[in-house]
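Standup, Tuesday
Yesterday: got the pipeline producing structure tokens again.
Today: sanity-check two examples.
Blockers: none.

Example 1:
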Amino acid sequence: AERVYVQASKVDEFARNKADQLIREAGSLHERLKQRLYLYAGVSLFFVLLIAYCMVTWVRQPLQCLTDAAGRFRQGDLNARSGYAFANEFGVLAAAFDDMADTIAADIHLRDKAARLAAATTRETEARAFCRELLAALVHETGSQIGAVYLLNTQQTAFEHFESIGLGEGA
């Protein structure tokens, strides 16, 4: 019986040592896995924040360009354009804004020219003075150096010189 007891004690001690070793290894493995989990979570969080920052920057920059251009245009700078020219949705929006600004600026420019011509021609009531004012305004607006008005004669056979700017008398 004592032999069995000694053998059982050896088995018990072996089992306890083996169990303690397994518990230590499991604890060590648990700590390593926990450290790796924290590392992977930290790296993942870093990449998520980096991607979020890039997305915000990529959205904010074109919107800021468009907002700045719209603000300058609203304040009267008819040459304000976004300058954003990328092949994405913001690029399409920026091109549409720039086209709209071009159209509005051209329309305002034409209206200003028409208003100056109308103002020049409404000041005079006499035909020769009216033609002189009209020619002066047209020459100025077109950048020409000469201008003339010829009227059909009473026989309706030829045009005769009536008024001119930049031409000699009787041209």
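Example 2:
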Amino acid sequence: LPALWVCNMQNAFEFFGVTPTLNLDLKEIRVRYIEIQRKGHPDLVGDGVEGSIEAIELANRYYEALRSPRGIVKLYLEAMHAIDLNQNRLPTDFLMEMMSLNDEIDQKHAGNEEAGLKAQRMLDEAEMDLTNALNELKSTQTPPLDALIEWYQKSKYLDRLRKNFLGIEEI
């Protein structure tokens, strides 16, 4: 795998030779991932293949990202040249709901079991809503990028709240 080939890759979909889509065939991606590993891994071909380390590292990074719905959405948005995925696009009603959820999580950590159960239900419902929203977006021929960016940001926000709920501190 020549270094020039790796450097010219624009996105994960192009890297694996598939059309950008939210409905990826993960088996196909895995087959292509293994092919790339076989062609360029130093343990299999030696250290002398130019660009092989870069290709393997890129394959690993892309493959890992494509294994989660949020990773697929992020890489799809990048492939579609969506700008500034971190600019806040979260609706006020969502933020208010998440503030309420965060309050329940804080009460759980303070020892309130009932608040913990309520927080669990709220998290589960919010995650189910998010799953349903993604499935709806996946069913459209060309999903609106603004809706995908909002979904992506909601997913990241809920992930942080889930970690907080579980007591996992982020660095």
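Quick observation on example 2: The first helix runs from residue 3 to 7. Confidence is low (pLDDT under 50) at residues 1-7.
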